[in-house]
Amino acid sequence: MNSFSQLSHLRALHFLAGACLFAWSCNKAPAEPAGSTSDAAAKAPAATSASAILPDGVVALYFHGDRRCRTCLGIQEGIEKIIRERFGAEQTAARLHYREVNSDREENRALVQQFQISFSSLIVARVKDGKVVDFENCDKVWEYAHEPERFAEYVEKQLRARLTPAGDK
Question: Which parts of the chain fold into alpha helices (H)?
C-alpha cells in the first residue's frame, strides 16, 4: 500500500472514530442543573410511550436520551419547526403525526428495539392498521445539523416521500 493510500485510510478511520464519539457523547452530555429547563424541553410535548399505538398515516418519531447535547436539542427543534411550518395541513388532516420518544425510558424499550435505536435519531414511518409498513432512519439530520437550509430540505423530502400516495403499500 503506498503512503497516499495509507493516509487516506487513516483519515477515513479518524473521521469514523470522531463521528462515533460525537454520536455517543450526545446521550452522555452533562445533565442540566437541577431546577433548570431548556427552552426546547419546556416547549416539548411529553415523550410518547411504546404502549401508545402508533396512529395510521406517517409518523415522525424523534428519539433521544435523558441527557442531550445542544446539537440533539437543535435537531429536535428543527424537526418540530419544519413540521409546524410546512406540514400544518397534513397534521390537521391526521396524515402526519409527530412524537418525541425518550429512548432511556423503560416504557419505550419496544419502540427502541423495533427501530434499532442506539442514539438520537429521526425515524419517519408509514403506519397502516396500527402496523409499521415501512420506515426510514433519517441519519443525515446529523450531517446537516449545522446547515439549516440543507437540514430543512432533507427533513421535508423524507416526510414528503412517505406522504405521497405512490408510497402507499
Answer: 3-26, 39-43, 70-86, 88-92, 109-114, 140-143, 148-163
Residues 76-124: tens digit of each pLDDT: 999 999 999 999 999 999 999 999 999 999 999 999 999 999 889 999 9
Q: Flag residues of the chain having pLDDT under 50.
A: 7, 10, 12-51, 166-169
Contacts by residues 37-40 (CB-CB < 8 Å, ≥ 24 positions apart): 38/73, 40/73, 40/76, 40/77
Domain boundary assignment for the chain: 39-167
Three-class secondary structure of residue 146 per DSSP? coil
Matching residue, cell 391526521 = 94
- CATH 3.90.320.10 for domain 39-167, yes or no, is no
